[in-house]
Amino acid sequence: MITSCVFCKIVRGEIPCDRLYEDDEVLAFLDIAPLSLGHALVIPKEHHTSLTTVPAALSGRLIEVAARLGPALMRATDAGGFNLILANGEVAGQVVPHVHLHVVPRSVDDAVVMPVSRVAYASPAAKAAILEAARARLS
Ligand SMILES: [Zn+2]
Hints:
The protein is an alpha+beta fold. The protein has a single domain, classed as HIT family, subunit A. Helix content is 32%, strand content 18%. It is built from 3 helices and 5 strands; from the N terminus they run H-E-E-E-H-E-E-H. It has helices at residues 6-12, 56-77, 124-138, and strands at 19-22, 26-30, 40-44, 81-85, 101-106. It has a 5-stranded antiparallel beta sheet, covered by helices on one side. It starts with 5 loop residues before the first helix and ends with a helix. Zinc ion (ZN) binds next to helix 1.
């Protein structure tokens, strides 16, 4: 627990939330600035700034809860699908430094805009260099 962390404060009950789900490890609640109706956040109760420090079993629990919440939120909001979004790091758009998985119900006529820009590798060699560097760090 981090004293100044807003999500840790929610876990401790110091800040109210619209609680959807809770167990010993995971808490899910409605986002206070929703991208769509029913937009929820799934967080580990244990403080982790980054997904990279969350133990594998716990990160699996986040996905498990999100996979249950998605259909429940779809039914509750008449949505046709949902996105899971995890912004890891400030440059990726992470605002609260306590890892959180967004569950965003989607409808044909919603106002959610997903990134549409694409990039191109400078060359096949540049692509191969990135591929090899990433593979090397996985082993
Ligand atoms: Zn925290």
